Amino acid sequence: MFGLNGFKEVDATTAKAIAASGAHLIDVRTADEVAHGVIDGAIHIPLHLLPLRAADIPQDRPVVIYCRSGARSAQACSFMASRGYSNMHNLSGGIMAWARSGNAISPVR
User: Fold this and answer.
1) Rounded to 5 degrees, what angle do the CA atoms 79, 109, 71 make?
2) Would you give the DSSP letter of residue 27?
3) Which of 74, 80, 91, 99 is deepest in the core (most CB within 10 A)?
């Protein structure tokens, strides 16, 4: 069930399962933050560029958006939901929660 904001909050375990099933991963952190590592397979779209790149985000499969702590990614999910996207998932706790759950952080390539 999606929340009142039109997107679903997911924990790291759920995000990992969604990603493994073919979800689109989007990292909305700054370039400086991304330089410290990413979730493998994520596409970097800084939050301030999301309005310009929204059309690049698919609507035919789940999308998991993350940032450092989950606040900016929640803003991104809300923005996308307001544009009619019904497939948005916010990684609650961001990449920090992902790492705390024992999931890998990959170096930037």
Assistant:
1) 25
2) E
3) 91
The total number of structural domains that make up the chain: 1
Query: Which element (helix H / strand E) includes 65?
Result: strand 63-66
Per-residue pLDDT reduced to its tens digit, 69-83: 999 999 999 999 999
Q: Are strands 63-66 and 43-44 parallel, antiparallel or unpaired?
A: unpaired
User: Domain for residue 105, yes or no?
Assistant: no
pTM score of the predicted model = 0.94
Instruction: Give the catalytic positions in this structure.
Output: 67
Domain annotation covers residue 82: yes
- The domain spanning residue 17 has which CATH number? 3.40.250.10
Q: Give the range of the structural domain holding residue 84, as residue numbers without chain letter.
A: 8-100
- Nearest 5°: the CA angle 38, 47, 54 is 105
